[in-house]
Structure formats: C-alpha cells, structure tokens
Write a structure and sequence with these properties.
The protein has 21 helices and two strands. α5 packs parallel to α11 (about 220-235) and α20 (about 405-425) packs antiparallel against α21. The chain is an all-alpha fold. The chain has one domain (about 1-375): Sodium/glucose cotransporter (Up-down Bundle), CATH 1.20.1730. About 75% of the residues lie in helices and about 0% in strands.
Length: about 475
C-alpha cells in the first residue's frame, strides 16, 4: 500500500503544484474510481469497528447506519450533480467557495469552512481508533507508554508522506485495493462464521438471551429514525465527502455512483451482523466494544486470514484519513489562507499551503489519539455530525434558491450550532439522542435534527424580516445555467 501511495503521484500525471490537481485530482475520476474513492471515503475503518461494536452493545439500534446509507443516495442523485456542475464552472474547490460565490458572504463561507474543519479533525482521530483496536488485538502494544503508539505513528508518517506527494490521487488508487480487501474479508466472514456458530437462527437466539434487542422496540423508533435521517443529510456535506464528489469528471459519474454505491450499504448490513456474531461466539469485549470484531476474527479464522482481515481494516483507516486531511487542507487554504491571510497568493503558494496544512491536520489527529482520551474524540465526532447538519440549509438551500437571506443563514447557523452543542452537552456527550418534552409528551430524537429544525425555521423567519427591511443580500456570481452541467 505504501508503494502504491507513492506511485500515485505519477498516475494521470499532472502539475501537483496547483490545488485543483493536488486537492481534486484535476476533476478527472471516472465512474469506477469515483465509486471506490467515495465508498472508501464513506465506509471507514471506524465503520468496520464501531457499527458492529454498537450492535454488540446495544442490539438492533446499531443498525441505524444501514438505512441512513440507503436514504442518502436518492438525495445524492438529485443534489450532488448540481453542486459539481456549479463548482466546475467557477473552479470552486470547496463547498465554502460555492457559498462565497453564491451569497457574496465571506462570513458565511468562513462559517462553513470552520464547521468542516472542526468536524473533520476528530473524524480522522477515530480512524486511528480503528487501527488501535487492531494493533491492540495483535499484541502490538509496546513495553513502554511511548512504544504502544509506535505502530500508529509509523502508519501515519507513511500516510502523511504519500498524501503530500500524491494528493488525492494517492488515496484514490489505494482505495481500489482497500475496498477489494474489505469485500473479500466480509464475504468470507459471512460464509464461514455463521456456519461455525450454528447459523443465524442460533446467533439471534444467543443475542436475545444476552438481552440485546434483535428487534427495535417501538419506543426507540423516533430516535432511530431521526438519527438515520440526520446522519444521511450530513453524510455528503462532510468536507471529505464533498472532496470525493468534486473530483468526479462529470455529473453523470455522480448519478451513476448514486445507483451503484448502495452495494456498500449491503456490505454494511453484513458488517453490522458481526456484532451479533461476536455475542454468539462468546467474545468478551464489554470493557471495550471496539475490540469485538478484531477478537471475533482472531477466534474464528486462522492466523494468516486474520492478518489479511486486519490489513484490510488498517488500510481502511488510512484511505479516509488521507482524504479527510486533504479536504481540511483545501478548506483552510481556499477559505482562510487565501481569503484572509494572503489574497494574492500564486497557485504554487496555494498548493504548498494545502500540502503543509494536510501534514498539520494529520499531526493534530495523531495528538488527539496519543495524548487525549479516546472518549474525547468520540464526543467531538458526535458533535461533528450535529455541526455539519447546520451547514445543510446554506449549501442545499443555495443550490436551489437565492431566496434565503445570507444574514439569516449566518445567524441561524450560529443558533443551530449553539443549540445542538447544548443538547449534546446536557446529556454529558454520552449519546446524540435528546429528549424533547412537548405538550406533556417525551419525544426522543437526534439532537442534530432538532437543531436543524430550529435552524430552518429561524432562517425562514429572519429572511422575511430582512427582506422586508430591504437589507442587502449580496451579489450572486452564478447563473441558472451553471447548475445544469
């Protein structure tokens, strides 16, 4: 994988001293590469570890990840080609570039950029959590406090170097192999493990006997549904997802991928089932559910195939981590560095800033994992989903209408961020579910959705107020034809 990452700088050779080439691979990826890239971007090592861990600990509720990855693709089919078309037309590198051009609002663009960077950092850190689970299961913990993190440090030094030299081409090329390894691992696990455990009927019986709900209780349906919906709406507005989208060579490539990407959702269903299989296999991971899948693979397979599966998980962390660092670097470079620090920078200086920023981002993520308790990263990633949702009215609204007032969008973004953060803090960051008390009834739902509803209502109300007051709404650099591709 290391060799492949470095070879990528010569693949589809171009001048990587331009941000469009380094950060978006020149927008030249076809259907197949985009499928692997976006799939490798969205279905991460932490997905491989955390989804079955949640099923292992909480039962059927953990399957919310499966419907949300199905809900998103019709949405993506309609929305993402419009975003790609207008960004291609105006050479927008990030979603914040689009917001800047659409509303002539540096403040609104900065809000979207800062939200994206804040949400991305802990997401990268959680890829390392997946790697740590593998290293810990393998016994690579080191004899000293420093030594236990050495495998992680080595992996991320390699990642930093080949991302710096190859840009987005590196994780795109590695994603092809990474996803192939993941598919082989899951298909083999689906065939072998249930056979060794007496079939799925027995697996579900054991899970039920362990008091893990194999069928969702009616009281959890609102929480389950809002969590699935909110996660779906947020998914493609994370910076790394937008980066994968904007690297496609046409809107049709994105439409085709919206048709083909649900194959990954099928794979995710099988991954989630590993949580119940770990219960049936007698895996004891109560203290750290993230170890459930690595321990299951170690118990059920010979050492050589366990090594193959662990390689798939670790590489499954490196690919999205690389894309995330590139996405955060693109945001900082275009929407902070170029906007506020060095407006007249050359294309070469812009690309150099992005490359250096990607190194800093990865170093920051490594510090998160090595020096800060893992629970803190999980809390921040939980907040990341809530925060990213508050950018949806700005981006999606901007793709379809100029009616929303830019100041209304900015004020409502602030309120949504504050309300969502307060809801998560009020439950001590232990869950993203917040209970609303309305008319004497308690309604549990995803805090991100509650904050988004407040955000949208306030946007509409303030837009009416600001329009009635005749407040300036900025100049739009786009035209209707730009969105059609």
């Amino acid at each position: 994988m290391t060799v492949l990452g470095f070879v990528a700088s010569r693949w589809q050779r171009a001048d990587l001293n331009h941000l469009d080439e380094w950060g978006l691979a020149g927008r030249r990826f076809g259907t197949l590469i985009t499928w692997f890239l976006i799939g490798g971007d969205l279905y991460t090592a932490y997905t491989f570890i955390a989804v079955p861990a949640l099923v292992y600990g909480a039962g059927a509720f953990g399957f919310f990840a499966v419907p949300y990855t199905i809900i998103i693709y019709p949405f993506a089919f309609l929305v993402l080609p419009r975003l790609w078309a207008v960004c291609k037309q105006h050479n927008f590198i990030t979603a914040s570039d689009f917001v800047r051009g659409r509303f002539e609002s540096p403040g609104l663009a900065l809000a979207v950029a800062v939200t994206g960077i804040l949400a991305t950092m802990p997401y990268i850190a959680l890829q390392l959590v997946g790697m740590q689970a593998v290293f810990q299961t393998m016994g690579l913990t080191g004899a000293t406090e420093w030594g236990k993190d050495l495998p992680l440090v080595i992996a991320f030094v390699i990642l930093a170097l080949y991302t710096y030299t190859g840009g987005l081409r590196a994780p795109a090329l590695v994603a092809v192999v990474k996803d192939s390894l993941i598919y082989i691992t899951i298909i083999v696990a689906l065939v072998v493990i249930p056979g060794q455990l007496g079939g799925f009927g027995h697996i579900f019986q054991v899970a039920a006997a362990a008091k893990k709900a194999v069928i969702l209780s009616p009281g959890l349906i609102p929480a389950y549904s809002t969590l699935a919906l909110g996660s779906a709406l947020a998914l493609f507005f994370y910076p790394h997802s937008a980066t994968g989208v904007l690297s496609a060579k046409s809107g049709d490539v994105l439409r085709q991928n919206s048709v083909f990407l649900p194959v990954y959702s099928l794979l995710l269903g099988f991954i989630a089932l590993l949580g119940f299989e770990a219960l049936a296999a007698g895996i004891d991971a109560a203290k750290n559910p993230n170890l459930a899948v690595p321990l299951l693979l170690t118990k059920m397979f010979p050492a050589w195939f366990t090594g193959f599966a662990f390689a798939a998980i670790v590489i499954g962390a490196l690919v999205p981590a690389a894309i995330m660092s590139i996405a955060a670097a693109n945001l900082f470079t275009r929407n902070i560095y170029k906007e506020y620090i060095r407006p007249n920078c050359t294309p070469q200086q812009e690309a150099a800033c992005a490359k250096n920023t990607s190194l800093v981002v990865k170093l920051g993520a490594l510090v998160f994992v090595v020096g800060i308790p893992i629970t803190f990263s999980i809390y921040l990633q939980l907040l990341g989903g809530i925060w990213i949702l508050q950018t949806v009215p700005v981006i999606v609204g901007g793709l379809y209408t100029r009616w929303f007032h830019r100041t209304a969008l900015l004020v409502s973004w602030v309120v949504g961020m504050v309300v969502g953060t307060w809801m998560a803090a009020s439950v001590q960051f232990k869950t993203s579910i917040f209970v609303l008390h309305l008319g004497g009834k308690a309604l549990a739902g995803y805090a991100g959705i509650w904050a988004l509803v407040i955000n949208l209502v306030l946007t509409v109300v303030l837009t009416l107020v600001f329009r009635a007051a005749g407040l300036e709404n900025g100049r739009d650099v786009t035209r209707a034809a730009d969105f059609a591709g």
